[in-house]
Amino acid sequence: MNLPLGFRYSATFAGIRKIVKDDLALIVSDTRATAAAVFTQNRVVAGPVEIARKNVRAARGRMRGILVNAGNANCATKTSEKVAIETSRAAARMIGAKAEDVLPASTGVIGVELDARLIIDALPALVAGLSADRFEDAARAILTTDLVMKTAFAEVKGARIAGMTKGSGMIHPRMATTLAFVMTDAVMAPDALRTALKRACGKTFNRISVDGDTSTNDTLAVLANGASGVRPRVTAFEAALTEVLESLARQIVKDGEGAKKLVTIDVEGATSERAAEKIARCIANSPLVKTAIAGSDPNWGRILSAAGNAGIAFDPRRVDIDFQGVAVCRGGLAADFSEDELKRKLDAAECSVRFVIKGRERGRARFWTCDFTEEYIKINASYRT
Amino acid sequence: MNLPLGFRYSATFAGIRKIVKDDLALIVSDTRATAAAVFTQNRVVAGPVEIARKNVRAARGRMRGILVNAGNANCATKTSEKVAIETSRAAARMIGAKAEDVLPASTGVIGVELDARLIIDALPALVAGLSADRFEDAARAILTTDLVMKTAFAEVKGARIAGMTKGSGMIHPRMATTLAFVMTDAVMAPDALRTALKRACGKTFNRISVDGDTSTNDTLAVLANGASGVRPRVTAFEAALTEVLESLARQIVKDGEGAKKLVTIDVEGATSERAAEKIARCIANSPLVKTAIAGSDPNWGRILSAAGNAGIAFDPRRVDIDFQGVAVCRGGLAADFSEDELKRKLDAAECSVRFVIKGRERGRARFWTCDFTEEYIKINASYRT
C-alpha cells in the first residue's frame, strides 16, 4: 500500500450509528486538489448529493476535502440540505478552506432526521486526528452493512492512486454507485480528470449490480492534488484509475448482501457495446439467474430468457453460453456436458458466464453481479428496525 | 361456478413431468370460436408461441381449441417448433378441426427436448376424456410450481366467462404473462374480442410482478364461441373480462414463489397513466421494498427511492405514502405513526401501498406484487435439478 502524498485522513464515532463504531470520516488534501465527481441518477436525491454537486461547481473543480458519515443517509428529511451545508461548512472552516471546498456525503437509513450537532460536536476531535496514515480508519468508518473494508491502489509513472468504497446493498449503478473516494497525487487538469472519471466509471462502477436498486446517495469523487509533481498522460492515468475502480467495484459485488459468489458476465457479438451492456445487465439482474447460481445450477435456459428481456434483437439460434468455461449451450440448444462436474465447478467463490452471439458483430461488455441467497432476504427484511 | 356453454375439457398424465400428475390438458369448443391471444414480449420465444401466433393468424381469429402441457416449456430445443406443430395438428385431427384451429402452449423447464410421442400417444385418452365439467382438471394440469389452482368466473348479460391461469415465478408481464385461458359463450366479433383482451390485459396481467422476469412462453388466449346467443356490448364484455383477468392476475401474485403477502400498489398524481404505471412497476420490482414488506417493516424510504428510479420526474417534497391506510410519509418527510402498531398491520396476508404525488396531475395506476422471502430463494436455487 503506497499512499498518495499530501492527503490526511481521520475517523471518529459521532453517535450517528446505533452501535459504537466510527461513523464520521474526513479526508483532506493539504492543498486544493483538482476534483471530479459523479452522482446517483435516482430522481430522489439526498441533500448531501445536492450540496456536493453545487460545491463541485462553485469550487470550479478544485476542492480541499470530503466529509462523510455512515448510519444516516440524510435523505428525505426536513433538514437534509441544511445539515449537509452546515456540517461541510463547519469542516471547511476548521481546515482553513472555503465553504464550498468540502464535499459532503452520507450513507445509511433514509427518512430519519440527522442531527447536525452530532457532527459539528465531533469535528474538533476529527480534525485533530487527521493523519497521513489513517487511510484505513476512514475506509472502515464509511461502511454500513459491508462485511469487509474495500480499498484499492495503483501507480502511474510514479504518481499514486488510492481508493476506498462502501456498499453491499441498493447497488445498481447508473452513473456512480454507493460511496467511493479516490485520492491521487498526480497532476491533473479538471477537464481531464472529469473525462477520465466518467470513462473509467462507465466500465466499472456502472457495470455492477447486487439488487438492481439505485440509491439516493451514490457519490464517487476523485481528488488529484498534484503533490507528486508527476503529470501522467491522460490515457495512462485513466487506465490506472480504471484498475482501481474495477477492483473497488468487484469488491462491492463480492461483499453484496448475502452473496456467496462473485459472478462475471461477458457478453460478446452484440451489435454494439451498448447492446452488449444491456444484455449483460438483464442477465445480471435476473433473480432467476442469480438464485440458480446460488444453487450451483447450470440453468442456461434462464440466462437465454433473461437476455431475451433486454429489448435487444438477436437470433437465439446463434447463441453460445458457457458456465465456468464449460459449454452448456451451443446455437441456442443444450450442449453435451457433465451436470455433476459443472455443479461442482459452480460451487467456487467466483463464477463466470459467457454469452456469445455468433456472427460478424463485435459489441462486447463485461458486467459483475453476485448470487442471490436466503441471507440477502434475512438482511433486508429487518435492516431498519 | 357457472361454466360457459359449448366447451369441453380434459386432462391426463402424458409422462412429461417427473412426478405422476396430469401434465397435458385440452380445451375444446364445440363450434369454431372467435379467438384472440397475446404473447410474451421476450425476444427469445418458445416454439409453441411461434406456432400459436401463426395459427391465430391462419385461422383468422376463429379456433376450436387449446392444447397445453406442463413440465416442459418446449423452448430452446432442436425440435421446439416441430413438436408444437405435430402435437397441435394431431389434436386438431382428433377433434375434427383444421390444422391451424388448435393453439399450442407449454410451460416448464427450458432447453430440454420435449418428446412429441409422449403427447401424441396420450391424445386418444385425452380426447376420450373430454367433458363439460372437467374445467378444474384442466386448470390443475397446467400448474408447475403453483401451490393452488387459479380460476375466475364472471357473467355479462347472461353470457358466462370462465378463466384459468398458472404461474408463480418468472412473472413480469409485458403483454401477457404465464399461461391463461379464458372461455366465454358470449357472441363476439374477432376485432372486438382482440380489443377487449388487449385493454383488459393492460390493466391486469400487465400490472403484476413476482420476480421481474418475463418468460419465453407467456400466452393469454380467449375463446368466445357464442353458444349463449348473448351479444353483449363490447364495453360490458370488457368490464367482465377485466374482472376475470384481474382475479386471475391477483391469484398468480398471491401464489408467487415463496410469497406470504399480496401487495397492492396504487400510484396517483403522476403526469399520465403510463408514468404512474412506470413508478408502480419500479416499486413493485424493488427487492428492497419486497424484502421490507416480508419483514413487516414500514420502510417508506425504500418506496421513495424505488420510485425515483422509474425515470419519471416528480418532486419528492410533494409525495405522500401510506402503508395499510396509515400515513407514513407526508410531503416527502416522515409522518408521525406508531411503528409497532403498523408492523402488526403489515403482518396481514394482504398489504397496500399508496404513493400520491400531490398537485393537479391525475395519472393513476394499480399494480400487484408479492413480498420477497427466503422461500423464493430456496425454490429457485434448485428448480431444475
Core attributes:
seven-stranded mixed β-sheet, Ubiquitin-like (UB roll), eight-stranded mixed β-sheet, alpha+beta, 11 helices, 2 domains, 385 residues, L-amino peptidase D-ALA esterase/amidase, homodimer
Give structural notes.
Two copies of one chain form a homodimer. The first copy, chain A, has helices spanning 47-58, 80-94, 116-128, 135-141, 190-202, 234-254, 273-285, 287-294, 300-308, 339-345, 374-380; strands spanning 7-12, 24-39, 62-72, 102-109, 150-156, 159-166, 179-184, 208-209, 219-224, 262-270, 319-323, 326-330, 333-334, 350-357, 363-370. The first copy, chain A, is of the alpha+beta class and 385 residues long. Chain A has two domains: 7-254, L-amino peptidase D-ALA esterase/amidase (4-Layer Sandwich); 262-380, Ubiquitin-like (UB roll) (Roll). In chain A, strands 1, 2, 3, 4, 5, 6, 7 and 9 form an eight-stranded mixed sheet that branches. In chain A, helix 1 crosses helix 2 (80-94), helix 2 runs parallel beside helix 3 (116-128) and helix 7 crosses helix 9 (300-308). Mean pLDDT of chain A is 91; it is low at 173-177. The interface between A and B is large, with 65 and 65 residues.
Overall tally of domains of chain A: 2
- Structure classification of chain A: alpha+beta
Which architecture of the largest domain in chain A does the CATH hierarchy give at level 2?
4-Layer Sandwich
Helix content percent band of chain A = 25-40%
Low-confidence stretches of chain A: 173-177
